[in-house]
Each structure stands twice: as structure tokens, then as C-alpha cells.
Amino acid sequence: MTTSIIITLCVLILLAYLFDISSAKTxxxxxxxxxxxxxxxxxxxxFFSVSVPDLSSLLPLLGTVGLILIVLEGSLELELNKxxxxxxxxxxxxxxxxxxxxxxxxxxxxxxxxxxxxxxSLINVLPFSIISSAIAIPSAKNLDTYNREFxxxxxxxxxxxxxxxxxxxxxxxxxxxxxxxxxGWQLILILVVSFFASVGLSYLLGRIQHHIKFIPIMVMVILxxxxxxxxxxxxxxxxxxxxxxxxxxxELKQHKWIAKLKPDDLNKEVHKFKEIATEAAFVxxxxxxIVFGYLIETxxxxxxxxxxxxxxVVVVIFISRAIQLKISGIKLFPLLFIAPRGLIxxxxxxxxxxxxxxxxVNNSLIIQVIILTALVMMIGMMGVKKNKKxxx
Length: 392
What we know:
Elements: H1 2-26, H2 30-47, H3 58-77, H4 85-114, H5 118-125, H6 133-139, H7 145-171, H8 177-207, H9 214-230, H10 236-247, H11 249-252, H12 256-259, H13 263-295, H14 298-301, H15 304-327, H16 343-351, H17 363-381
Helix pairs in contact: 2-13, 3-7, 3-10, 3-13, 3-16, 4-5, 4-7, 4-15, 8-9, 8-10, 15-17
């Protein structure tokens, strides 16, 4: 039995690796192939009457660790200098306004047609408004430098801003001045934690001489995230700031206190740390989507009752995105199509309190929106020429 499990896990990872390599040529998002693989495994276990324990409890665990590693991986790629400021500003605007507009509009539609309270509807639709960096960042690797960096900034910020807004709405019974003041203090506190934790972890990364050093640092990053999240702090902001700090030591080394970290030597360790984070993110992301695909019921996938609403959600997502890209002066192709929903949408959906859940937002709707946005991205990416120069 143990041998069979090990062989299965190895085969799944190798298949995911082949999917990742082939996606550059086929333009089929890896997430679709992983979901299909998980679904096919479920059919095989049923056909051969193989007993498999309940895997649903693994999703939040894999999703949380995966989200941390994916945002960390993306933030380590980001460069902060004067030449990048226009790009960062545009990415921040495009990540924020479509999220707000689509969230508010969808909440109105669900509350109007479903008879739910507006706040309850907003909690349920916000997961649809957030771009999944777990899918967007790997899918953008074939784009030119400008668009690839834009997707990395935008999707990472969308994750962070989306989670912050979701938690703010979900955790406050009444949204008033007091709630905003409390949120302001939380934001200040996580910025302070991020500063000291980033400096401290960077110091350890450069000074630990033991042959095992990267895993303890990674564990401490996850621990700080989980503890911050427990106290309802915007903990993803810490992951972003830590990654950006490590990835931009050359831009910061003119400061005396940064020089004490020996940035030239530390850069070598950061490069190794980045490689480990990238490979770990690949493994966790792989198993998350395979498990999610395994848990998909065929009836949920083909549920015609939710298909119309899934179509409405996707239309609202891409119309609000197209308007904001146009207002920001950014060419619609190919960035319009890169707005997948995935890991973060599933995580937030699973975290909705039972009292706040509404019948219109269910497993079927989540699955259909994820697949439809991935298909739109696939179709859009088919027209992309690799290494094409950007004129944005």
C-alpha cells in the first residue's frame, strides 16, 4: 500500500512537470490539466473500487501554504526602482478598481435576485473578484518582460488587497468609522512586524552557517504569517514586503543599516532561497489543484442551474477589467484575458462562516467560474507570440 502511494505521488508530480513544460507550446493553462487529472483519478478510484480517505481537509492546508509560497515566489521577482514606478502604479490601480467594481456589482445582483442582504452577498462574491496569482504568474511566463512583470505585480496585489477587503467585510459586523480605525491600526502593526521580521530573517539567512538553513527560514515565514492571520492582521502583506525586501537588496544597500547585512554575500543566499521557494510552490500548487479536481463531482461541473450565473460572473469580471485597462492606457491584448480565478477564490470560499453562506454561491459556481476564466485565458494566450516586444 505504501509503495503504491509513493509511486502514485511520484507519477503525479512528473505529470504536472510535463504539463508545465508543455504549456508553453500548447497554451493550455496547467491548472486545467491538473483539475482534469484529479477528476480522472476520482473516476479511476470509483471504477476500481479503491478506498481513498476524505481529502477535503487537505485543501485549506495546501491552499494556505501554496498561497504563501506563490506570493513569496512572485515578490522575489519584483524590482523596485524609479523606472518601475509607473508599472507598479498601473498594476496597483488595475488590481484594485476592477476588484471593487466587480465585487460591488455582483453583490448587488446576488442580493437583488436572491433576496440576501447586501453585506452577505458581498462576502460571498468577493472570492470571484480576486485574480489568482497561483495561475496568473506561471501562465505569464511566455509574455514579454513588461507584461510578465505587470501580471506578477497585479495578481500579487490582487491577492493581498482582495484578502484584506474580504477579511474586513467578513470580520466586522458593522462597517463604520470604528471598523476603519481598527483596520488602520492593524495595517500599521503588520507594517512594523514586516519591517523587523524582514530584517531579522534576512540577517539569519546571511549568517546561519549550518548546512540546513533555508527550510527553517521558510518555516519561520509561514509561522509569522499564520500568527499574524490568527490576530486578523493583513498577513499576506508581510509575505509581499519580505519578498520585495530580499529581491531588492541592491537597490537598498546604500543605506548603512542594510550594509550591515552584507548584501553582496546575502544575494547569493537569496538566489538559492528563491530557487527552493519556486520548486516548493510548484509541488504544493500541483497537489492543491489535483486534490481539488479529485473532489469535483461531475454533477457539480455540469450543473446547469449555476452555469448562467457563472457566465454572468465571468462577463462582469472581464468587462470591468477591460474598462480599467482602457482607462489606464494599457493595451487590452493580452492582459485582458489574464484574469483567472483559482486557489485564492477556493480558500476564501471555504473560509466563509456558515451563517454568511448563501445558496447561490456553491461548489458548482466556484468550479465553473474557475474553469471558464481559465478557458478565456487559454484562448487569449493562443494569440500571444513568445518574446514579442511590448508597446504598453
